[in-house]
Amino acid sequence: MLRGLLLTPRPDLAHRIEERCAETHQVVLLETLDHYLDEEGLRRFVRAHSPQVIFIDLESSLDSAARLIRHAQKATPRVALVGLLADPHPERILAATREGIREILYAPFAADPFRDTLERVEEQLARVPVEAEASEFVYSFFPAKPGDGASILAANTALHLARLPDNPVLYADLDLSPGLSRFLLKLQNGFSTADALERFPEMDDTMWADIVVELGPLAVLGSGEIRKTLPHQAARVRHFIDFARRRYRMLVMDLDGRFDELSLEAISESRRAFLVMTPDLASVYLAREKMRFLRAHDLDDRISVVLNRWHKDAPINIPGIEEVLGVPIQQTLPDDRAALVNAVMEGGEVAPATALGKELVKLAYALADSRPLLKAEPAKRKVEYFSLVPSKYTLVPGR
Q: What is the pLDDT of residue 177?
């Protein structure tokens, strides 16, 4: 059965196509949208759901439909496009054909022509070479404030993931200010993530081999010297992630937490993004502000909170932190400074036998296993730790 997407602003047309899909059992509609997607929206939908056929309303807005057809052809060759018309208007048919539409259905969308069209679509897709599979395992880490340990957590997660069998991993430091990866992993290669981003989308395998560092089973793009901001950062990081998805099973990105266009694009492409914080009041406050920002940009649904350097004498307890943030804490990491110092001195991973190492291994295994991340509701308790915060600020978002 084919996977389909239906795009039409007209409810009557949508209803007819949905009925025909249900009757023929040849296609399952993943989504019916009442608007034409832009290029970025279509690209994200194709990546997330891999539709095989897109039904496009040519009646409501031919210009919008034509733009969508061009976007779809760029997104992937393994998507068949089927136009929808109330009547066989010659001008619309000619315009759609010029844009690349090969199949058009006309109202009332009778069952036999509908079946014949989908059979031709299946034959068409069977002749298209299968694309290299793109990995869905893209993760990013960013701090509530500098010094909360996001870089150490990202690097160690990548190191532990790379030790799993048949699990090629790329760790990329996207903190261009620069980040800590070169120091943490004792990298000697003169190239950096900034070099890779500068050369996209012209990157090829030969160029990639010169830039990336191989640390045993782990590939690394480290931080470099401070540089000027690259133009079109969002497009560059998008090309970079697309490139990495097809060459590694897992991509771990280390972000600086500044929420520029580079970081926001990386978070939006992540299966899960980890906000790393510590149990001090400044970190909790900044974590709350970042969660508010992410909610405003509809990115909060992919955020998990990691509480680093947790200890029993912390000035605010876990239920209190959850109440302030409005989300549960995904995982706590102990304050194991000795294990951390040893790892930094050796330029490698935190020893798995230590208290901190055990929790890092647990997190890495959960990501590799793709098990659903916990979504428990935060405890509903009154917080008294922020009594000095001005009353115009609410401690719990939405209240």
A: 74
Number of residues in the chain:
399
Beta strands 213-215 and 218-221 are antiparallel
The position carrying tokens 């990202």 is 154
Collapsing DSSP to helix, strand or coil, 25 comes out as coil
CA angle 367, 370, 371 (to 5 degrees): 100
Neighbours of 111 (CB within 10 A): 12
pLDDT digits (tens, 9 = 90+) for 137-175: 999 999 999 999 999 999 999 999 998 888 999 999 998
Q: Is 148 helix (H, G, I), strand (E, B) or coil?
A: coil
The per-residue b/e assignment along 208-235, b for 16 or more CB within 10 angstroms, e otherwise, is beebbbebeebbbbbbbeeeeeeeebbb
Predicted pLDDT of residue 395:
27
- Mean pLDDT calculated for residue range 164-189: 84
Check residue 315 and give its pLDDT.
87
Pick from 6-20, 220-234, 291-305, 322-336: least confident: 220-234
Give the integer Cα–Cα distance in Å for 329 and 315. 16
Nearest Cα residue to 242 out of 275, 214, 208: 208
Q: Which two tokens stand for residue 47?
A: 């990546």
User: pLDDT tens digits, residue range 289-298?
Assistant: 999 999 999 8
Cα–Cα distances in angstroms (integers) from residue 366 to residues 157, 317, 362, in the given order: 11, 25, 6
Least Cα distance to 97 among 81, 120, 116, 115 occurs for: 81
Which range in 42-46, 102-106, 166-170, 235-239 is most confidently predicted, on average pLDDT? Answer: 166-170
Q: Which domains does the chain have, with CATH numbers?
A: 2-126 (3.40.50.2300), 137-369 (3.40.50.300)
Q: Tokens at residue 139, please?
A: 């993760």
CA–CA gap between residue 337 and residue 351 (Å, rounded): 12
**Whole-number pLDDT of residue 133:** 63
What tokens appear for 212 in the block? Answer: 């990336």
Task: Compute the distance between CA of residue 356 and CA of residue 350 in angstroms, rounded to an integer.
Answer: 7
Query: Residue 168 in contact with residue 218, Cβ under 8 Å?
Result: no
